[in-house]
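dumping this here so i dont lose it
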């Protein structure tokens, strides 16, 4: 069907109107009957009524043929409508080329963006350990041990050692810890102490190191190593390393770690195990290193320094021994000394006293006449935390290893002759985490009426019903008790010391 519009009134017309006489064609224009009459255009008579009607074959009307339609169309279609514009093929080619160019640029930009994002995640690139250089000018001191040490010294590494953090400048990358310089390994100035862990049901302390990007690639000959000072840990949760990977965590447990001394701990990355005991895949990116110490209900100290990756050697514990200074070999090392010459800070149960002192001393410490204790006639107590810094080489920190350490003091005991046969002098150590009923004790039968020096190896101290069970723990308090059935008994002490003596030849 051809659609036309009246040239005058713009009424919509079609080829059927031309057939029925409702429209008139004049030249290139088409008019409705009313406009044709106004314009004086001759209106042809309508076609024979008997002529077949369009689209009604059942009425006996004749269908207009395609030739007639084309003739009418060419006759009545306006020139403006009959001349349809054709698009130039070159324009089509240009449009197609422009569309392809836009698609290509989009794909190219997407590839560049994804590549830059991937490269930023992999900076710095993960390379084999032997291709890296140490991050500090001088390598860390190699762990050594005395010849008679039960733990063999570590062999020198066969490859490179890369320090992740030595804490000398900052504690960047660490969490759950506090940088401190009270207790550090030989050759270091700073270390990091783990904070108490209140939300963990398995461990008492936790340290974590990660910098938001992969640290290293796992390899069969790769070791993670650090210098560790640990106290109070025991059981299956004594010490645990965790390596965090994109695919999960892999763990390594250490049983019976050395306590109360700086020790190098080395763990082969290939020996870490994941959930279900699966092995760690080679080439996996190590994102974080975690150190746990416990168990959760224990009073634990965890201090770490010189976290690093190494190649070669073997895993285990390796003591760190400081080289003695010139002229100091074979000398005693005083860990704690108190002579009461200036003050008695930290002591309770008595007062400074100058009426009876040992030779070369002007002041001592005498116990009060009323100890306030149901078991002991006299009781003197020292809080290690209250000792002034000037009197303590390791401020407010005293750890017992029991090996070659001695408890020493000068004492004066005076009792009546009737009570002299049953008098006892008891020394006690209150160790961090132990109940008061489980103090480590050592009891002697003292000499009376004269100043006497006593020196007792700490390894002889015993918990009631067992051996010294807190090896390596921190000492909070020390006690000197006098057990005597005498209301007038006297107890005076001076020159209290805890020293570390060299091994006899």
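and the seq i came up w/
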């Amino acid at each position: 069907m051809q659609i036309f519009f009246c040239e005058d009134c713009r009424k919509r017309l079609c080829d059927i109107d031309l057939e029925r006489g409702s429209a008139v064609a004049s030249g290139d224009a088409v008019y409705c009957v009313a406009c044709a009459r106004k314009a004086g255009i001759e209106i042809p008579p309508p076609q024979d009524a008997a002529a077949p009607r369009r689209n009604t074959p059942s009425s006996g009307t004749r269908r207009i043929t395609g030739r007639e339609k084309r003739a009418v169309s060419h006759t009545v279609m306006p020139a403006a409508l009959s001349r349809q514009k054709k698009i130039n093929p070159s324009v089509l080619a240009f449009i197609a080329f422009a569309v392809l160019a836009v698609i290509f640029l989009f794909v190219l930009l997407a590839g560049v963006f994804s590549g830059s994002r991937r490269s930023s995640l992999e900076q710095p690139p993960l390379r084999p350990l032997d291709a890296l250089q140490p991050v500090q000018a001088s390598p860390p001191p190699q762990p050594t041990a005395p010849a008679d040490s039960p733990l063999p010294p570590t062999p020198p590494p066969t490859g490179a050692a890369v320090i992740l953090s030595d804490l000398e400048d900052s504690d960047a990358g660490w969490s759950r810890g506090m940088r401190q310089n009270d207790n550090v390994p030989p050759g270091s100035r700073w270390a990091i102490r783990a904070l108490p862990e209140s939300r963990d049901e398995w461990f008492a302390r936790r340290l974590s190191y990660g910098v938001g990007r992969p640290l290293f690639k796992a390899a069969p000959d790769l070791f993670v190593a650090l210098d560790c000072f640990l106290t109070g840990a025991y059981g299956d949760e004594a010490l645990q390393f965790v390596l965090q990977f994109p695919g999960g965590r892999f763990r390594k447990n250490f049983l019976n770690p050395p306590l109360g001394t700086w020790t190098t701990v080395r763990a082969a990355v290939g020996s870490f195990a994941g959930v279900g005991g699966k092995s760690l895949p080679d080439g996996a990116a190590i994102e974080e290193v975690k150190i746990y110490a416990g168990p959760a209900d224990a009073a634990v100290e965890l201090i770490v320094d010189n976290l690093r990756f190494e190649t070669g050697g073997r895993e285990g514990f390796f003591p760190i021994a400081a080289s003695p200074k010139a002229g100091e070999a074979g000398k005693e090392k005083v860990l704690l000394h108190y002579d009461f010459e200036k003050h008695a800070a930290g002591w309770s149960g008595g007062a400074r006293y100058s009426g009876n002192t040992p030779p070369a001393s002007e002041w001592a410490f005498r116990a009060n006449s009323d100890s306030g204790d149901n078991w002991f006639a006299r009781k003197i107590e020292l809080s290690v935390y209250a000792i002034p810094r000037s009197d303590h080489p390791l401020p407010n920190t005293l750890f017992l290893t029991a090996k070659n350490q001695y408890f020493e003091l000068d004492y004066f005991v005076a009792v009546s002759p009737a009570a002299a046969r049953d008098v006892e002098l008891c020394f006690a150590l209150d160790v961090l985490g132990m109940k008061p009923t489980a103090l480590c004790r050592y009891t002697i039968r003292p000499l009376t009426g004269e100043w006497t020096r006593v020196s007792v190896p700490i390894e002889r101290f015993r918990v009631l019903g067992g051996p010294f069970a807190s090896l390596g723990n921190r000492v909070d308090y020390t006690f000197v008790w006098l057990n005597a059935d005498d209301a007038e008994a006297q107890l005076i002490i001076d020159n209290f010391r805890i020293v570390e003596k060299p091994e006899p030849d």
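Residues 203 and 296 are 4 Å apart (CA to CA).
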